[in-house]
Design brief:
2 domains; two-stranded antiparallel sheet; 5 helices; binds zinc ion
Length: 132
C-alpha cells in the first residue's frame, strides 16, 4: 500500500513539474492520458498532502480552484485577469524591499512576518496584443 502510494505520488510530482501552475483537475487530466486507472480523488489528496508538507506550493483564489506549483521556494505570481494564466515573477524582489514591506505589516498589525504569498493581477502581453 505504501509503495503504491509513493509510486502515484511520484507520477503526480513528475506531471506537476511539467505543467504551468495547474489545478488538481488539470493534473488529473494530464496523468489520465498515460495512467487511465488513476482517480481524481488520489490526485487531489496527494497534491493536498504535498502542499501541507511544504513540498509544493498551493496558490489559493477566492473564486477559483487552487493551483499548484512544484517550486516550493518563496516566489511571487501575477495572474492575467483576461486569460487567467499565472506567471512566475522571474526573480524575487530585493531583500531590502521585502524587509520594508514586512516592517510595514508588523507596524500596523503587530504580526511578525515569516513568509509571504503575493499575487499581482494585470493583463498579459498576449491578451494586450489580442493574440490570446
Ligand atoms: Zn492573458
Ligand atoms: Zn510559481
Amino acid at each position: 500500500m505504501a509503495r503504491r502510494y509513493s509510486a502515484q505520488k511520484q507520477i503526480i510530482e513528475d506531471t506537476l513539474a511539467k505543467m504551468d501552475h495547474p489545478t488538481a483537475a488539470e493534473v488529473y487530466e494530464e496523468i489520465r492520458k498515460a495512467y487511465p486507472q488513476i482517480s481524481l480523488g488520489t490526485v487531489y489528496r496527494n497534491l493536498g498532502l504535498m502542499a501541507d508538507d511544504g513540498e509544493i506550493l498551493r496558490l489559493s483564489f477566492p473564486d477559483a480552484p487552487d493551483r499548484f506549483d512544484p517550486n516550493a521556494h518563496e516566489h511571487y505570481h501575477v495572474s492575467c485577469s483576461r486569460c487567467g494564466r499565472i506567471f512566475d515573477t522571474d526573480r524575487t524582489f530585493p531583500s531590502e524591499l521585502v524587509r520594508q514591506v514586512d516592517r510595514a505589516v508588523e507596524a500596523c498589525t503587530g504580526v511578525r512576518v515569516e513568509s509571504r504569498v503575493m499575487m499581482f493581477r494585470g493583463v498579459c502581453a498576449a491578451c494586450r496584443s489580442g493574440r490570446a
